[in-house]
Every structure is written in structure tokens, then in C-alpha cells.
Design brief:
Length: 375
């Protein structure tokens, strides 16, 4: 099965839309384009797929809403415009999605959310919770309070970070170009679209151009950077033209549009290695044979019922080892509870946890998404 055909099986999909896609050249909101995009995404939700929308455009929307002639250069002014525009933009999405029976939720992130471990985990859990509720998260940078994030192409990278956070199958970046070309198609009529990029080589990087439109903040070079992040996380990325009707549907149907950057399966294991070895081991959890078998054979989360004992003194969100009754390490992962609380619920059925921990927020001791099975 080739990479395009595999896209038909994508279940968890992140779609990034650039400012130039949802606005006209003069800066006004392109409501017709936004409505068509929302209709495509709602239809994918109706198919049972999970959708996350990463949307640029808060500052451009603020410029439009306040009737300014152009985007100001000062950081405080752009932060103020983002504060105004984000609310307006979210209202538009909420109105459009509701017309198709879908509920949206706003999520504002910064790069720090993916760098700091506890923020990474919290961001991941929030997004996964929204998806489990059937909500379409609409993600943007928190431009109103973040200075560092206001720079070229950050939402391209943000979309790749989000795709990595949630273990997405596919990331689609909609732009004002229909993929990567052998040369600049605006100046070279012999330029041809590159359907697939198996490896991001220096030559591929040199093909990427500069920054995008006056209102947008992204260029092809930032999309290449996003592709690096996505591929290393086991996510396939496709760059497609945001003005093409049915572009998202065409990508998911495996049609030959845009430029595809296939996921690298070996690098998915490397990302899991980060989870296993990226932090100091704070303690050990000993589990029974039934729990070990469920984890190994079914990929199950670690539940309190299978927990025999706890060694060490650690807080929630710490990284621990999971040992079988013989003391052999079978997994590593991030715990949802501290050591003292785990000792209280060891051996309990899920329904019994609340009686011992009234403020319990998780059914799992370690969720399978935050756990790595060891060889």
C-alpha cells in the first residue's frame, strides 16, 4: 500500500489553515472559503474521524474588525489585535461548525506548552479529552500574551507540535500554494510540483521560499520545518492549496494533490524512546501477571487493579518503571498519581478509586499513550 492510499485510513487528522486562506487580499474575512472548509471538516467528523483545526488569522481578523489599514509592527499593538481578533475568529468558527451539528472548543498554546513536561502532558490530555467528547478543538497560538511566538511561520510549527502531541495520523497544511515545486512557479514556468518528498535533504530545503503574504506569517520554509517535526513524530504531512475546493477531502481520499511528506516509522520509536529515557526515573510500580499480560498483549493502560506495590517517593506526572512480579522491567511511563495516592488505590477496581481518593481525576495509573513497553 502506497503512502497516498494509506491516507484513506487516517483517523486522527490535524488541519492547519493559514491567514491567506481565510482572508481576501485586502484583509477582509473570506467567509465563503471558511464555510467550505468547515463543511469538509464536519463531513469528516460525520465519518467518525477525529479533527483538530489549527487556525491562523487572529491578528488579521483584529485588523479587519478594528478597520485598520494595515497590521502594525509593534508587539504590544499586535498582541492587542490578537486579543480582539481571536474572539471574533472563534465566534465565526463556532457559528459555522454549529450549522453542521459540530461543537468546537478553543485551545490557545505556546511553544512552552511542548517544552515543559507538565505543560506538554496537560496540553495533550486536554486535547485528547476534547476529541473523546466529539469536540473539534480549534487551536491557535496565545499571541495576546506571548512575545516569542509572534514570528514567521510559527503556526506551521505549532500544527506539527499539535499533531505530535495527539499522535495524529495525518497533518494537512493548507496554504496559498499547492505544494513544493522544483522552482518558484511564479518566476519559472518550467517549475513542476513535487508529489512526494521521501527525505528532507539540503536540496529540498533550498527549494523553500521566503515568508508569505503581507497578512500571513508563514512561508514554504516554515512548512518544511513543520514536516521535519511531523515526520519525526510518525505523522504524515501534506501541503495543499487552501483555495482549492475539496482539498482536505481529496487528500484524505488519497488523491494526488499537494506535496506529501510520509511519516518515518523508525522515528516514531525514537519519540517513544524520549518518553522512556528523557527523564529521571522517580520510582517503581510492581504489577501482577494479569496486568502484565494485558499491557503486553492488548496494549492496555495500567489500572489500579493490577498494581501490587509502589516503591519510591514521587509526585504525579513523574516517570516511573513498571516491573512484573519477578522484578523485570516491562514498561516505563508517566503516572497520573503520586506515590502516596497510588499506595491507597493499589489493587482497587476503577469504580472503587473515588472512595479512597475523592478528588481522583483519572481511571488509569498510567495511560497507554504515556507508556512505553520495554523489550
Amino acid at each position: 500500500m502506497d503512502h497516498r492510499t494509506r491516507l484513506k485510513e487516517a483517523h486522527r487528522i490535524v488541519v492547519k489553515v493559514g491567514t491567506s486562506t481565510i482572508t481576501y487580499p485586502g484583509g477582509k474575512m473570506n467567509l465563503g472559503r471558511m464555510e467550505k472548509l468547515v463543511r469538509e471538516l464536519a463531513d469528516l467528523r460525520n465519518q467518525g474521524r477525529e479533527i483538530i483545526l489549527v487556525s491562523s488569522g487572529a491578528i488579521a481578523t483584529g485588523v479587519n474588525h478594528l478597520g485598520l489599514a494595515e497590521k502594525p509592527k509593534g508587539v504590544p499593538e499586535r498582541q492587542a489585535l490578537a486579543a480582539v481578533g481571536q474572539g471574533v475568529l472563534m465566534h465565526i468558527y463556532e457559528t459555522l461548525f454549529s450549522e453542521y451539528g459540530q461543537t468546537v472548543g478553543q485551545v490557545l498554546l505556546t511553544k512552552e506548552n511542548s517544552v515543559r513536561h507538565n505543560q506538554y502532558t496537560n496540553s495533550r490530555n486536554a486535547l485528547l479529552a476534547l476529541l473523546s467528547m466529539g469536540v473539534v478543538p480549534v487551536v491557535n497560538e496565545n499571541d495576546a500574551v506571548s512575545v516569542d511566538e509572534l514570528k514567521i511561520g510559527d503556526n506551521d510549527n505549532l500544527s506539527a507540535i499539535v499533531a505530535s502531541l495527539v499522535d495524529a495520523d495525518l497533518l494537512i497544511i493548507l496554504s496559498d500554494v499547492d505544494g513544493l515545486y522544483t522552482a518558484n512557479p511564479q518566476t519559472d514556468k518550467t517549475a513542476t510540483r513535487i508529489p512526494e518528498v521521501a527525505e528532507i535533504t539540503p536540496d529540498i530545503e533550498r527549494l523553500a521560499g521566503g515568508a508569505g503574504s503581507a497578512l500571513g506569517t508563514g512561508g514554504m520554509h516554515t512548512k518544511i520545518e513543520a514536516a521535519k517535526i511531523a515526520r519525526s513524530a510518525g505523522v504524515t504531512l501534506v501541503i495543499a492549496h487552501g483555495q482549492q475546493d475539496g482539498a482536505v477531502r481529496a487528500v484524505v481520499n488519497g488523491e494526488d494533490i499537494g506535496t506529501l511528506f510520509p511519516a518515518k516509522e523508525a522515528h516514531l520509536k525514537a519519540r517513544k524512546s524520549w518518553l522512556a529515557f528523557g527523564r529521571h526515573i522517580e520510582g517503581d510500580l510492581i504489577v501482577d501477571t494479569g496486568c502484565e499480560r494485558a499491557m503486553r498483549e492488548k496494549g492496555s493502560s495500567l489500572l489500579a487493579a493490577g498494581l501490587v506495590s509502589v516503591e519510591g517517593d514521587f509526585a504525579e506526572k513523574s516517570t516511573v518503571r513498571v516491573l512484573n512480579p519477578e522484578g523485570r522491567e516491562i514498561a516505563r511511563g508517566i503516572v497520573n498519581y503520586g506515590a502516596d495516592d497510588l499506595r491507597k488505590i493499589a489493587g482497587c477496581r476503577t469504580a472503587e478509586i473515588a472512595a479512597r481518593l475523592p478528588d481522583a481525576a483519572h481511571d488509569e495509573v498510567i495511560h497507554r499513550d504515556n507508556m512505553v513497553l520495554m523489550a
